[in-house]
Write a structure and sequence with these properties.
285 residues; alpha/beta; eight-stranded parallel beta barrel; three-stranded antiparallel β-sheet; 9 helices; 40% helix
């Protein structure tokens, strides 16, 4: 396994105009990351997304830091499924310019007003699978695998992820296994990782602090899981996510790709990412 860092980890730092995405890539390289992931990217005025993608790729090659994944939003519960598939296929074109082997797109955050059917995951699974299948069929022609993450509560449970991969039924499509996000659906991380690891095409490592929903609201920086427990992002190795155990599970399942540091805590960004990379490398061994 190799360690990468996602641009999302630098969200706090990037709010300061003096810190750029190129500074983020330089920092990741300097602290020993083996790759970099883009969770979307901003396109400067006067540039097209395709032009900016080429600039980012050129810079990554210049500093010897490969771009290993392109992660974007997606919602197949939009009323116009064809339009959403087309939009995501154009993102696949961007992924090709970036030179990534895998692109992550979300599935949906949940139901929208137009939907009047039974509001269960199995009821809309065929629609979600159709969208994923159409996107991955196009991505396959460009040599890119696609995957979806346990992200956004609605498609966050491990059994739902397995059901989605099964329904898509294409070896070009798998999961982005986020070790921490299972807690947002109150699932045991180790058990969940064991279920989805055989289908993992990319991995996010993150950590959370957790307080029972029986306790008082801890305030700023915390959010609630589906079962109303309190979670707050923190440095990898400082929280309750069994990251070391999860890495063992992934290894047993044969995963040998990138594990991407995703920091979303309140600690100082650059120090937190560096510590996360150090700890993750120790866990991988």
């Amino acid at each position: 396994m190799k360690v990468s860092v996602t641009s999302y980890s630098y969200s706090q730092a990037l709010r300061d105009d003096s810190f750029t995405i190129f500074d983020a890539m330089d920092h990741a390289k300097a602290i020993g990351a083996d790759g970099f992931e883009f969770s979307g990217f901003d396109t400067p005025e006067g540039k097209t997304p395709a032009e900016q993608a080429q600039i980012l790729r050129d810079y990554s090659e210049k500093i010897g830091l490969p771009i290993v994944c392109y992660a974007i939003g997606g919602n197949f519960m939009n009323e116009d499924l064809d339009a959403e598939v087309e939009r995501l296929c154009r993102e696949v074109d961007i992924a090709k310019i970036l030179g990534v082997p895998v692109m992550r797109h979300d599935v949906t955050g949940g139901f929208q007003d137009w939907y009047t059917g039974v509001k269960t995951f199995p009821a809309v699974l065929p629609r979600l699978a159709e969208g994923c299948r159409r996107v991955t069929e196009y991505a396959k022609t460009l040599g890119i695998k696609t995957c979806s993450e346990n992200h956004g509560r609605f498609a966050q449970d491990p059994d739902r992820m397995v059901a989605l991969v099964t329904a898509v039924n294409d070896t070009n499509y798998g999961t982005l296994c986020d070790l921490g996000n299972f807690l947002c659906a109150d699932a045991d991380s180790a058990i969940a990782v064991g279920m989805v690891a055989p289908f993992a095409y990319h991995v996010h490592a993150k950590d959370f602090l957790r307080i029972s929903g029986q306790e008082e609201d801890p305030g700023h920086g915390w959010f609630m899981s589906r079962a109303c427990n309190y979670l707050r992002g923190t440095i990898i190795g400082h929280g309750v996510v069994p990251v070391r155990q999860d890495i063992k599970i992934l290894k047993e399942a044969g995963y040998d790709g990138y594990v991407t540091v995703e920091f979303e805590g309140m600690e100082k960004t650059l120090e937190a990412i560096e510590t996360g990379v150090e700890n993750l490398k120790k866990f991988i061994g």
